[in-house]
Amino acid sequence: MRPAAGDARRIGRVAVAAAAEALLVALALSSFVFAAFRWLPGDPARLVLGDEASDAAVSRLRGHLHLDEPLSSQYLRFLRGLMTLDLGDSFRRPGTGAMAEVLSALRPTVELSALAVAMGATFGVGAALMATGPWLRPALRDWVDRALVLGAAVPLIALAPVLTWALAARARVVPLPGDPQAGLEGLLFASGLLSVPLGAHVGRVARAALADLGREAFLTVARAKGGRPLRVWLLHALPCVAGPIVTVVASQLGALLGGAVVLERLFERWGLGTLILQAYAARDLPVLEGAVVAAGVLFVAAQMLGTALHAAVDPRVRGGLE
Amino acid sequence: MRRRWLRLVPIGALAAASAAGTAFSRGLPGRLDPQLSWCGPSWERPLGCGEAGVDLLALVSSAERGAMALAIVVGLVGFAAGTSLGAAAALARGTVERAVERTCDLVQAFPSFIMALAVLSAVRSPSRVYIGCVFAVTAWAPFARLALAQTRSLRSASFVEAAAALGRGRSGVLFRHIVPNLLSVAAVQLGSTAAAVVVGEASLAFVGLGPPDGVSLGGVLDQGVSAMLRAPHVLLVGALAVLATSSGLLVAGRVFQAEPTPR
């Protein structure tokens, strides 16, 4: 069936709505950052310089940060800075643009999180297929279910340090990911840790969706036509549950980014989280604002990518939305 | 029916253990004994010592109580705000209902840990009240969402119509007939919200944004990571405490849930 002109218009409308919502989330997050520094008790300039600084130095910094202007013009200046990717110089390293530091930290975090999403989705879908399909004995399938529940319930903050201690420090089967020589293996270990909670959530949702689907007539037809179980489940069943899988990945993205910050701190690995924490410790406001907004934009971009993927896999979404 | 109440046992046992731990160690969690730094478990100090000889039993017990109190307060605030907002929105229907639903979507999609980092880094030393407020800003959304979905199916139930026909006002219907029917679903969410707060607080303290007195499960984990090879017991104690608290809260949330019918 060829898509009609109305379809194209509908897709366009959905895309515009998604982009508008993404922009709204990014704007909300950056406004939150802006407001937090100006409304919470305590003067940012005083926070940067410390208690011993003279009033003259504080008021000079206030002028430099434009804190003495009315809030509305400060806010416009902040938004303009975000649009033009220019938030001024870093306090900690004068001469380096805050945005340059943020961009250099973005890559390791993107690598870590993207790999974790890929691994988590693969593990989760694989486990769900194992728990639903005919390959394992029923008792083993129940154990897969139990493992998924356990994986979703164990918090990363408890799991990651213990596994690092056991595998990297004691058994030495994997390198410490913060080690510059760790390379790909270290990255794989770190994103493997990060993917455990995500994979378990994906597995539970995919398992439930596949179990609902199992008795559908079209799968019986596919089996009756002689399709092997692997073909039936992978080609016929899996695309139908893409929706719930994408939704659960999207809903876990915020937690994943938080987990990335924790892991970067655990492994002393360079990334957005490390940058945020360093900028916090050094009271480096431009870098801090830029890094938090970058984390928000990364999150929003990943969510939009998820929506696009969902539409690409599932024709019901392409035509049926709205 | 009676077995359901057993789901409160793990968290109750944990609370009792933390009270007993404080009573047994008799010390303040902040007392230091530098010559006992990183010493292993002994009869005097059953969980061993951490950095600068801080008694882990005292530290973990009091951090545990702090985390549980924070989690329960944030969970109850989110429950009260979210459930009433969601149920009221579903009763109001129309634009209000759609607006609340979209807001829930937005808030639930928010990377709340990043937001907590941003907000807390703006204050000099994040106290427990600040940490609780930051979590409460997003905690109400899942409750509102659940209440909305449940109320949608309840609002056309005949007992609700009957109550309205017999002259109960809108708030009467809401609080006497709708909200009691939401409790079992909301309690599950209360458990998982509380568990998420425990984990979130520990994570914040782990990355260095904990309460100023350093009494937090995340602080214990941070000490454990820095002395991973010398004193692994610190790391294990911290991780087990986080795990036990969060899963205890998760299990406790299912207290009103019916037993699954046997197949």
Structure in words:
Chain A has 322 residues and is mainly alpha-helical. Chain A is built from 14 helices and no strands. Chain A has helices at 5-39, 44-49, 55-64, 71-83, 98-132, 138-153, 156-170, 183-213, 217-224, 229-237, 242-267, 272-281, 285-313, 315-320. Chain A is globular and about 85 Å long. Chain B has one domain: MetI-like fold (Orthogonal Bundle), CATH 1.10.3720.10. In chain B, helix 3 (56-92) packs antiparallel against helix 8 (170-206), helix 4 (94-109) crosses helix 6 and helix 6 packs antiparallel against helix 8 (170-206). Chain B is elongated. The model of chain B has no long low-confidence stretch (mean pLDDT 81). The chains are: A mainly alpha (322), B mainly alpha (263). The interface between A and B is large, with 50 and 42 residues.
CATH class call of chain B: Mainly Alpha
CATH topology group of chain B: MetI-like fold
Shape of chain B: elongated
Helix vs. strand class of chain A: mainly alpha
Give the low-pLDDT segments of chain A: none
SSE series of chain B: HHHHHHHHHH
What percentage of residues of chain A falls in helices of 4 or more residues? Answer: over 70%
